Amino acid sequence: MTEYSDIRCQVEDYVGTVFLNRPDRLNAWSDTMAMEVHDFMKNAADDDNIRVIIVTGAGRGFCAGADMKSLQALQAAGSSGGSSKANKEIDLRIKKNVPRCFGESFTFFASVPKPVISAINGPVAGIGLVLAMFSDFRFASSAAKILTVFSKRGLVGEYGSTWILARTIGVGNAAELLYSGRIVGPEEALRLGLVSNVFPEETFLEEVKAYAKNMAKTCSPRSIRLMKTQIFNDLFHGLEDSIRIAKEEMVKSFDSEDFKEGLAHFVEKRDPRFTGR
């Protein structure tokens, strides 16, 4: 496995776990971390030993947002430095079967053909929250603290955060969290729909991994891959197009190995042996 400096990776039982690994800085986001996370996702996309991906933080936090040194460097560079960086046309999509807008920093998670789960083990803010929001879904530790923070720094909602928050928790809730920059605890995050479940701090990663391993073992990788594409493409489709595409893909599914195995293991009352084909 590739050795990285700002992230740490594990692969076990078809689950790839990525630790944002700058615990002394609450895993503050760096340019190196950005490149390494993208590289891992690109490699994981074609690795048959990885069916589900977990992103979490080393130490007591998930990600405190952008590294303050990077923000200070942008301030020193002035508006031209910030705008030139933002205007670079780089397509980061891992697979090209989703709209090009999913080829930006963080949004490219939507182009990874495998489920990406953010395991929010502690404080998450700013860019760290954007990363979590563009994961397929999120679990929170009982120690999680979630905040947008942009308004506290004199910034705007970055990297599509306004778009994804409004679609996840509704316009009013998104506006309130973005404008106030206040801290959201795990139970409120669950109520709002920011996270799908909350697990105790003491057993948090163990429980998230158990969930991911069960998904990797019992669910068709082909089904998940195609449903993920459907979900993110449907954000730009009307209902008529969504139904049409679903019908086309359903017909193709009938000829797949995973469909045949899905029937066989059910009839034979045994664990499935999906191939993803």
Could you write a compact summary of the structure shown?
With about 280 residues, the protein is α/β, with parallel strands linked by helices.
Give the SSE layout.
Blueprint: E1 7-12, E2 15-20, H1 31-45, E3 52-57, H2 68-86, E4 116-120, E5 123-125, H3 127-133, E6 137-141, E7 145-147, H4 161-169, H5 171-180, H6 186-192, E8 197-199, H7 204-218, H8 221-234, H9 239-253, H10 257-268
Parallel strand pairs: 2-3, 3-4, 4-6, 5-7, 6-8
Antiparallel strand pairs: 1-2
Using only CA atoms, what is the Rg? Answer: 19 Å
- The helix count comes to 10
Q: Count the strands?
A: 8
Instruction: From the 3D structure, determine the CATH topology of the largest domain.
Output: 2-enoyl-CoA Hydratase, Chain A, domain 1
Shape: globular
In the sheet with the most strands, the strands line up as: 1-2-3-4-6-8
How many discrete domains? 2
Q: Proportion of β residues?
A: 5-15%
CATH superfamily grouping of the largest domain? 2-enoyl-CoA Hydratase, Chain A, domain 1
Order of helices and strands: EEHEHEEHEEHHHEHHHH
Are there runs of 5+ residues with pLDDT below 50, and where? 80-85
CATH level 1 name of the largest domain: Alpha Beta
**Oligomerization:** single chain
User: Structural class of the helix and strand makeup?
Assistant: alpha/beta
- State the helical fraction: 40-55%
Main β-sheet: number of strands, strand sense, barrel status?
A: 6 strands, mixed
Distance between the termini: 25 Å
Averaged pLDDT: 92
